[in-house]
Write a structure and sequence with these properties.
2 copies of one chain form a homodimer. By secondary structure, chain A is of the alpha+beta class. Chain A contains 8 helices and 11 strands. In chain A, the strands form 3 sheets. In chain A, strands 1-8-3-6 form a 4-stranded antiparallel sheet. A 4-stranded antiparallel sheet of chain A has the order 2-7-4-5. A 3-stranded antiparallel sheet of chain A has the order 9-11-10, covered by helices on one side. In chain A, strand 10 (218-220) and strand 11 (224-227) form a beta hairpin. Chain A is globular. Mean pLDDT of chain A is 82; it is low at 1-30 and 242-247. Chain A binds a DNA duplex through residues 154-155, 189-191, 199-203, 205-206, 208-209, 221-222.
DNA sequence: CAGGTACTTTGACCGAGATCAAGTGGAAGC
DNA sequence: GCTTCCACTTGATCTCGGTCAAAGTACCTG
């Protein structure tokens, strides 16, 4: 019940972020053990938080901003394998080193816990272990959904998929009645979108222009997006399921 | 310790399969609670085990044969999102219905547990929950590795990636000294490979022929593969990391 | 305000892989 | 032995998205 306030509630009056993750951000926090091992870290846009292979002595969750998990081949080809939005969890209990580059895509604040104490606590707090399992399973579903996007969708469908995921995730913050246009700022550069979608930045730019021409989306400047009809966008994405995780 | 025999050992003298999963297959089993809720199911190649969206009242692990997790779009495009080899876990505690089609790619035997009792047991057996978390994290890593394959690799690299993963997984069953040629039978049709790699079956066929011509692999018939030099194959895959999960 | 930098757009061209279409080979059934 | 079927191979052609190149735009900084 109180524990719930720490790691399970999805909206909290005392803080602006959603806690899907294990994060003792808000003042209701009564789990003192968590409190003693947590700390905050800030990063600037573009900063690398961890390099793949580096030792990683903490776990944590995103408080504000966006981070990305990226894999790189020797020849420089890169693929983003995860997008971490506020409340998403970072790190892997039971693993010494990072498996991916973690990069701050925007300015970023993270709430961290030192790994060892966190793992200890997981050992005698089954609820947290259970919650972590659920979150990991959600991420697995998201990754697999993305495999369909990467493997089988056209460039246009890929863009539409990404936009509709961001739109829905964004809309869920202020679910003011499910209808009406959705407005948001793209938190990603064209290049980051390309890395996520397995495209080149030129193709991303072209397809966004095409969607704009067809009035599926409206663009103000380069980043400010209005989606007049989310249904039409999802049609473009080839998405019938109203699922759509983003990690 | 005894529990270990049930779900943690990776090789067991009494049975031919590896237990990476929670499976009470071997006779050493002393966890009677697990014993009482387990049962076996057999499937023929091509048979669908569960359809996406169907209620799913069990979890389990593959004993022998291969199953695949598949997603399908309305227009028929399909993407395989996971390949389940012996010892891999199927099903998701805490979810009512299946998220993907699960299909027996070859003849298949599964070891199943009814979901509710299994979940109950997880509640008071933290080791199993912990083990399940580790396995899920492994699967997540595998899925993300595959995102790089789907998003950024060429057809030839994709084929080489798949072959080297199967080869290494296969070789690990009989690690007779790490060197020498690796021999195995492809457990997948060209079409299944295409669905896994995000290609068409024609392209798969062409690239396999090309790898054969270049002596990276040897083919006897259509399925029997010999890999004279796994290092060369991994080079073709663009893979420097010697990682390589298959779920 | 000029100049620089980072991000984005647009155009022209090309090629990897998809698509369409035969054709091959081996195993099962009659 | 012959047909049928299925998995696979191979060829010809087309197309989507990549590549290379050039501009355009917004935001700094001096």
């Amino acid at each position: 019940m109180t524990l719930k306030a720490v790691y399970e509630h999805t909206n909290c009056d005392d803080c602006p972020i959603r806690h899907r993750a294990v994060c003792a951000h808000c003042e209701k926090d009564e789990l003192e053990e968590l409190e003693t091992i947590k700390y905050y870290r800030s990063f600037e846009a573009g900063q690398t938080i961890i390099w793949s292979g580096d030792p990683m002595n903490f776990v944590g969750s995103v408080v504000s901003g966006i981070a990305s998990l990226t894999q790189t081949m020797e020849d420089g080809r890169t693929q983003m394998v995860g997008l971490l939005l506020p409340s998403d969890f970072v790190g892997r209990p039971g693993r010494e080193s990072a498996a991916y580059d973690v990069v701050a895509t925007t300015d970023l604040v993270m709430c961290c816990f030192r790994k060892k104490p966190f793992e200890d606590m997981m050992g005698h707090t089954p609820h947290i272990a259970h919650r972590l399992l659920q979150m990991t399973l959600d991420e697995l579903d998201a990754a697999r959904e993305w495999m369909l996007v990467l493997g089988r969708k056209t460039a246009r469908e890929k863009i539409a998929s990404l936009l509709s995921i961001i739109a829905r995730r964004d809309a869920s913050i202020q679910p003011k009645g499910m209808s009406g246009p959705i407005v948001f700022d793209l938190p990603l550069t064209r290049e980051a979108m390309a890395d996520y979608l397995g495209l080149t930045l030129e193709t991303v730019s072209r397809q966004i222009s095409a969607l704009k021409k067809d009035q599926i989306i409206l663009l103000e400047g380069k980043r400010h997006v209005t989606i007049p009809d989310i249904g039409r966008l999802m049609e473009e994405a080839g998405d019938d399921t109203d699922g759509g995780y983003l990690n």
